[in-house]
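tool_log.txt
---
The assistant was asked to compare two proteins side by side. It first ran the structure predictor on the initial sequence, then on the second. Raw inputs and outputs are pasted verbatim so the downstream comparison step can read them without reformatting.
(1)
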Amino acid sequence: METIEKTPLSEKIVMGLKKAVVELEDFRLQAALGKAEARDVYEEAKKKFDKYVNEAKVRVEDAKDTARERSTQLKALLETLQVQLSLGKAESKEIFKVQQKKITKALNDLEAFIKKNKTANEYYTKLLMEAGKFRVKLDILKMRWELNRLETRIEFDDKKKELLRKLSDVKNRLTKNEEADKKWEHFKDDISDAYSHLKKAFVG
């Protein structure tokens, strides 16, 4: 009988982070090159993230391993985030700032809840990573609104190399933590650290 080799959680996290780098680079270039108005890029990002949040909500409803109280809390936080994502179009910088503030608060609440959860599993990890990626997109768009356009920075290639080096460090720490005790605290700290590096690379 064939045994299916499971990919370790640390490996999945690193693969997810590498995909995030590519997606965020494409997103930054789209905003920088003026292929679309900032508000259109923003609406598209909200729509894409809202779709993921909706899928996450369905998974919470279907999850049998999540305690009822935790499941209810998580669902409420996801719904609050969806309400903020569905606010009308940001036709001006001022409206964007108001929306960004509300969405950021909803993201903070969601991330705080996830980080308090002591179970390291793929579902919570993915949710935390998607929230981190969307947060970086908001920061890119904030810069786009502030400057009215983003410069395509020459030094970005150097920053990307540095970022990939840091991701390699994160991978080593994740692997060590996974082999040692698989504690969620280590995973969530390493994920937060990785997204902090992503933010620095994309918005300085």
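(2)
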Amino acid sequence: MATATEVQSLNDIDYKSKIKIFFLILIALFLFIISFLNFYPIGEKIKSVIKTSFNGGACKPDFEEIHMEWLMPKIVVSNLVIPASCLDRAGEPLKFSHLTINYHLISFAPFGLPFKIDTSFGGQDISMYFVQGINSQMIRLKDQTLDLMKLQPILGENVKLSGKVTVDLNMAMSKSVITNLTLKAQSKNFQVPPQSIQGFTTPPLKLNEFYLEAASEAHPRILIEKLILGDTDAPVRANLKGRIDLQEGNAAMSPLDMVGEIAFSESLKKAVPVDMLLGSFTQKDGFYQIRLGGTLGSPKPIGP
């Protein structure tokens, strides 16, 4: 039990004064950090780190300026340039007029530092969440509506599609390899440009309806759980499922193995000899029961 003298000494302590001093120290430290970062050449230091990290490689991102903003704290990058070699292909570099990185609270699933990244490319706003963990990264796009035509330079010349697609993506990576992926995508105005199928070229296909569900299996396999193409008025209607062995850096060359059913409009049958190509497959309610092989960029029917 405390003595009367001890109680008296505790009562003599000026707690309010102690708290004020503590907060003054915190404020001074905060102001020092802000002043330091405002005058510290952070952009030049990051450029130096990038050059050192990518020394000897063809992938050398660059930017004009990087600075801090303290209202809703974030890093702002101006005129970011990413060479096509960073995507394992030749061509013009990708240019982003701005990119902002907002810090969020720590993530526990996966454990790491989370950021919200906002940018714009070709008039298309892009927003995603990124978590940097220990030897791993996670990318999250939540119900993001993307205009495929505006993103053509990112998709690559072998993937020519148009329409607005709403994407929900959750992807984890380790050492540039996809370790986990779940994807849902859908569109109501999906279009496919002319395709070459076994020597025959199709006209542009206005499919409108597009729905995709996919998930990862053992690398590099992606399981296509559901792929629906075409509404009732489309020249092609299909319902497929199967797998794709993803070739990162050249997705168009990814081998595929899909099964399902497909139907063609009479106008398309006149433009392309469908019966000659698929005549060996059985039909059910006007739909060919087919299997597709080849690659993602050049699919072809495989005989039953």
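---
observation on (2): The chain has two domains: 26-100, 104-304. The first helix runs from residue 4 to 11.
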